[in-house]
Amino acid sequence: MHARGSVSVLAVAIALALLPLSWCTPWQMEGGDLLRSSNSHTASGISQGIGWQFTVGPIQSAPCVDSRHVAYFGSSDINFYAVTINDGNLVWKVRLNNPVLSSPALSNDESMVYIGSMSGLFYALNASSGLMIWSVLMGGPITGGPGVDANGNVYVSDDNGMLYSFDQRGRQLWQTALLESSSSPCILTGIPSLETGVLFMSSQAWDAVVAYSVTGGTYLWSQKIPNVDQITDVVAASSSWFPYFGAVFYSNDNILFCLDPFSQSYKWNVTAVGAPGNQVGSAVAVGDDGSVYWGAPNSTFMSISVSGQIQWIVPTNGIVESKPVLGAGYVYFASLGGTIYCADQTSGQVYWTELMTAGTSTALALTDSGILLVPSSQDGTMYGIGVFVNPSSSPTPAPTASYKVSWHASRTPVPAVDNSLSGGAVAGIVIAVLFGGGALAALLVYRFGFGRLKSAYTPVA
Q1: What pairing do the DSSP bridges indicate for beta strands 39-43 and 325-328?
Q2: How many C-beta atoms surround the C-beta of residue 455 within 10 A?
Q3: What's 27's DSSP letter?
Q4: What are the distances in angstroms from CA 62 to CA 76, 81, 90, 101, 151?
Q5: Are 32 and 40 spatial neighbours (Cβ–Cβ below 8 Å)?
Q6: What are the boundaries of each domain within the chain?
């Protein structure tokens, strides 16, 4: 979650059917994969209790995990950490001399871990040792995590409104202006009339979801979000789950939206009744059947079907702002009140809870070895919890809460979008290029100067 005037972390989305699976790691980036769907197929369920705790400064950096079972994450204490997930022992740490709020991502071969810092430096570190391989100074602080595609290209943005693409050697492929600040990138393929992927950003500056071409970063279109105060990360779903060429999900103060990226129209939205106007819930996780799992800003957690029908609701002791994670048949989520929950994906029955010393708004991770990682954004503790198959505790039926489903066409008209770029934000010429058939509009924006290399890196034994 970001304050108004920033572009929240965006989900990277690539249809799973089109991706080679050989390069996937246990949890390569925030949300697990390029869909940012937070869907781990790890068999899980019963809690073995909190196995270990690793305490640093506040953790707003969601962990990634490699096949060696090492987790990587940053902290407000200006350090970046590598920790074993089985016992929570430190492998190495690196002092980056500025708070690390960005979430890391692993290269496809797991040799490098990418991370940005509040200094504006974007790093590629050796995953085994923490030594710097390359770094690039961007145009502003980096709070969103990078995304890595199947070709190894990296997409990342800074908080001054620039989106960049690099190859794995740190060579810039392109950059494009996003007006104001920005965060993590996201790509969805399989949309008709587009041969390459589409990158989605949720923009506070535009009050909209914005789409860019992966090739060159050219602007395609934007869809206005009504009544925006704050906005969550965007998460995408592949077309194998949705009949309309995939979907993208995001929420503002109290409404969860499902957007068709082909027609740029809303398929459905769900409104949380009684949610405070200045609060925002979680980004969603997306299940194998297209069900969406959402922490709403009125201290409840819910499952929503592919057609937008609420399937179940569980009340929580505080708002769930942290992104949930799915195991095989189970969903895990944590509240600002300091409770970790495990519930059945189908029924919402709560199987167990664990108490933390403080709450969290940082995304969870579930590894292929059955270790649930819960970082606390409040007290700076990373929790490692072993979860295994077939919970033995008696399930508790999920209580209901007051919710309403609103269909976009009849209840929440979307205002027209002003796609013009302000002169103060972008100095350059805007060229509008229309695709054949009028399906999409592409906008090529002026590229700013870029490319300084600088190190502000100190390995710590």
Answers
A1: parallel
A2: 12
A3: B
A4: 12, 12, 17, 9, 23
A5: yes
A6: 7-460
Supply the pTM of this predicted model: 0.78
Give pLDDT tens digits along the chain (461 positions): 333 333 333 232 222 222 333 334 589 999 888 778 899 877 777 787 899 999 999 999 999 999 999 999 999 999 999 999 999 999 999 999 899 999 999 999 999 999 999 999 999 999 999 999 999 999 889 988 898 888 899 999 888 888 899 999 999 999 988 755 455 655 655 444 444 577 877 776 667 778 888 888 888 888 876 665 566 666 666 544 444 445 677 666 678 888 877 777 888 888 887 766 666 788 889 888 889 999 988 899 999 998 899 999 999 999 999 999 999 889 999 999 999 999 999 999 999 999 999 999 999 999 888 899 999 999 999 999 988 665 444 444 444 433 333 333 222 332 333 323 233 333 332 223 233 333 333 322 222 332 223 333 334 43
As to burial, measured by CB atoms within 10 angstroms (0-12 exposed, 13-18 middle, 19+ buried), residue 413 is exposed
Q: Which amino acid is at 195?
A: E
**CATH number for the domain whose boundaries are 7-460:** 2.130.10.10
